[in-house]
Structure formats: C-alpha cells, structure tokens
Amino acid sequence: MSQVNRPLGVSILAVLHVVQALVLFVGALALFAVGLLMPRIFMRMPHLLTGFLSVLGGVLFVIALLALLLAYGLWVGKSWAWTFSFILAIIGILFSVAILILRAGAGSAVTLILDLVIVYYLMQPNVKAFFNKGPSPVQVVPHTVQEPRAEGAIAKYCTNCGGPAKQGELYCSHCGAKLA
C-alpha cells in the first residue's frame, strides 16, 4: 500500500468501477433470466440463441468481477491497477478514434474526451506517487547545513523539517511549520 494519501480522482475512478460492476451484474442476471425464460415463453426459440444469451451473461459476469477487482486495486493504490487503468484508457482512445473516423457521434466524442482526461490524470505526479509509479511529489529532506551560532547560544531546529531556526522565530523559514 502507498504512503501517499489517495487522490480524490482515484477515489472517483474506483467508485465508478464499482457502479460499472453493479450494472454489469444486473445485465448478466438479465441475460441469464432471458436465456432461461425465453424457451418457455416461445416454444420455437432455438437452443443456440438461449445458449448464446447464457454465454454472454457469463462473460458480463466475469467482466463485472474484473471491474470490482480493478476498483479495489485503485482504492488501495496497487501498481497493477494504475497500469491496467492506463491500458484500458489507451484502448478506449483507440476505439473512440476508430468509431469517430467510421461514423461521427457524440457518444464516441465524449468517450474519447473522458479517456484522454483519465490518461492525463493518471500521469500526474501525485497520482503516480500513490501507485508507487514515481517519486512522491513532496519529499522532506532534512537540512544538513548548520548556521554558525554565537558562543553560549542553544541550537534550535524545526521538528518538522530539521532545518535550523534562528532565536526568536515563531515559524520555520524552510517549511513554515510552527516552532516549539
């Protein structure tokens, strides 16, 4: 698990994947139900069609499970979840561009924009740091340079960043933390 706080956008992506999984579960159940009930309603319904509906329901069920797994990975900051989300967004961009070339549509344009935003967001330093894909955007490096002090003066250092503090300062001149 990552040491960096989860960015809000990552939380939103995780929740959206949970919602997607729920919709897919409902769709899978509906396909199973239609596959089971259709032969009873329509006696001449071919078994191939009912089998196809059942297989399609099974595929939707597996995709829903994968969406839940991805939501979990995003929520806890797993490196593989970042990679998988990035790949899915790139694939979405390619499909959206292909569909826009074949036939322009508002839905494909919106999907393209959303996937581009996801790719851009996933490349942000704080998001990459959450998934251990890059350095933390804020690194605290203690100061090693000591200022010369007057004879008999007590050295004072910031408890937050380790930087030297001058006598009488209320706030650290390096990190802004209140000095004790």
Summarize this structure briefly.
This protein has 180 residues and is mainly alpha-helical. The protein has helices at residues 8-41, 47-76, 79-102, 106-122, 125-130, and strands at 156-157, 164-165.
| Radius of gyration, in angstroms, nearest whole number | 27 Å
Mean pLDDT: 81
Query: How are the strands ordered across the major sheet?
Result: 1-2
Distance between the termini: 33 Å
What helical percentage do the residues reach? 55-70%
The secondary structure category is mainly alpha
Task: Walk me through the topology.
Layout: H1 8-41, H2 47-76, H3 79-102, H4 106-122, H5 125-130, E1 156-157, E2 164-165
Antiparallel strand pairs: 1-2
Structural summary, described in words:
- It is a single chain.
- The chain is mostly helical and 180 residues long.
- It folds into 2 domains: 8-130, no CATH class; 140-180, no CATH class.
- 62% of the residues lie in helices and 2% in strands.
- It is built from 5 helices and 2 strands; from the N terminus they run αααααββ.
- It has helices at 8-41, 47-76, 79-102, 106-122, 125-130; strands spanning 156-157, 164-165.
- A hairpin with a 6-residue loop joins strand 1 and strand 2.
Task: Please tag this protein with its features.
two-stranded antiparallel sheet; 2 domains; 5 helices; mainly alpha; 62% helix; 180 residues
